[in-house]
Amino acid sequence: MANVAYTRGGAEYTPVYLMEIDPEKCIGCGRCYKVCGRDVMTLYGVTEDGDIVKPGTEEWDDVEDEIVKKVMQMDEADNCIGCGACARVCPSECQTHAPLS
């Protein structure tokens, strides 16, 4: 059974949680990051070899000059409240959302 929530006015709705971000479709614009107040996502770098690297790590320091683009990745998926704000601002439709079952 899906998770049911209620609006302030008492109307039922089913939250749809961020389940996945497709790094092939993500353009790294950061719009979803800006609207998410829950720290669900982090903007990672992608190297010339296609490796996805987290900023602020030793690995990032080693390959920073090889970063060719950035993509969003989920770091704290459990923080997602299913509001869908990230999906509404995503221009590349790279996210998958679903209710909890």
For the report, how would you describe the main beta sheet? 3 strands, antiparallel
Question: Kindly, what is the distance between the CA atoms of the first and last residues, rounded to a whole number of angstroms?
Answer: 5 Å
How large a portion of the residues is in β-strands, by DSSP E? Answer: 25-35%
Question: What is the share of helical residues?
Answer: 10-25%
Describe the model:
The structure is a single chain. This protein is α+β, with helices and mostly antiparallel strands and 101 residues long. Helix content is 16%, strand content 30%. The chain has helices spanning 31-35, 58-63, 85-89; strands at 5-6, 12-13, 17-21, 41-47, 52-53, 67-74, 95-98. It has a three-stranded antiparallel β-sheet with strand order 5-4-6. Strands 1-2 form a two-stranded antiparallel ribbon. A two-stranded antiparallel ribbon has the order 3-7. A hairpin with a 5-residue loop joins strand 1 (5-6) and strand 2. It is elongated and about 50 Å long. The chain starts with a strand and ends with a strand. The model has no long low-confidence stretch (mean pLDDT 94).
How is the topology of this model organized?
Elements: E1 5-6, E2 12-13, E3 17-21, H1 31-35, E4 41-47, E5 52-53, H2 58-63, E6 67-74, H3 85-89, E7 95-98
Antiparallel strand pairs: 1-2, 3-7, 4-5, 4-6
In short:
The protein has 101 residues and is an alpha+beta fold. It is 16% helix and 30% strand.
Question: Main traits of this protein?
Answer:
101 residues; alpha+beta; three-stranded antiparallel sheet; two-stranded antiparallel ribbon; 3 helices; 16% helix; 30% strand
